UniProtKB/TrEMBL annotation:
Domain Ketoreductase: 12-205
Protein name per its UniProtKB record: SDR family oxidoreductase
Listed Pfam families: adh_short_C2 (PF13561)
Family, similarity comment: Belongs to the short-chain dehydrogenases/reductases (SDR) family.
Amino acid sequence: MKDSARQRLKNQVAIVTGASSGIGAGVAKALAADGAAVVVNYSSSSAGAEKVVQEIKDDGGCAMAIKADVSQEDQVQRMFSQVKDQFGTFHILVNNAGLQKDAAFVDMTLDQWQYVLGVNLTGQFLCAREAAREFIRRGVQPEISTAAGKIICMSSVHELIPWAGHANYAASKGGVMLLMKTIAQELAGYKIRVNSIGPGAIKTPINHEAWETEEAANQLLTLIPYNRIGEPRDIGEAAAWLASDESDYVHGITLFVDGGMTLFPGFRANG
Ligand code: NAD
């Protein structure tokens, strides 16, 4: 492995949803570089997923792609069975798949609302439930990890910051926050660790219009005290740490990885 003297996730299997692009691809590569065998889930872009799998293999890692729409219970259950058939068990779930369907609140259709909630919130519920069932069934394998399993939910700074024009998305991430905290409370006794990552502005296809032009990027930077737009790798590194035993006492939190976006930067010059 090129990048991975650490190998903190050796002998572990990780499932990363929505990993054919953006943050999910960055997380899949970071977990693989740390020693995990990675399942690259995708819903539509098999080419994107196969590219991520190939990049991981080229770096000496282990990966496979599995298609499933995370908002559909039967497809989620089929994916988790395929993973168990292939690897016997798994140890890490990164609930990353998500999307936006933006509209002014008064124009938002029920379809736009339900589509975003279906993927961003119900999808996380369905995948976390399958993961928890397997982690409880298998229990702790002390030679592999101090936890029976790790669930990492991809939230957003918008679990905290209201976002006009994105009521469905912000509601989904607010929902993810309390889903994460509630299952963290409920599953702790099984030694299952549950946390979220709250990315700020990361350069991915989901928000390309916010960073593609110099003007848009400069406007975005006014919201980021650390003065750079994040990269998928920034989130990958955070996910690898949260999945490893180095963070064994970290449970039920959202780790904001946002260059300070949640520091209310509008107040910087307001003394
Ligand atoms: P992206 O569009 O590159 O990635 C989203 C992925 O989810 C895609 O690969 C897409 O195919 C997949 N997906 C969509 N619907 C799916 C479904 N039903 N089943 C399975 N997969 C599905 O965007 P991204 O920025 O990498 O987003 C990843 C996550 O990060 C999302 O949850 C998003 O809300 C969150 N996030 C992103 C940012 C950012 O600035 N990019 C900030 C905060 C949070």
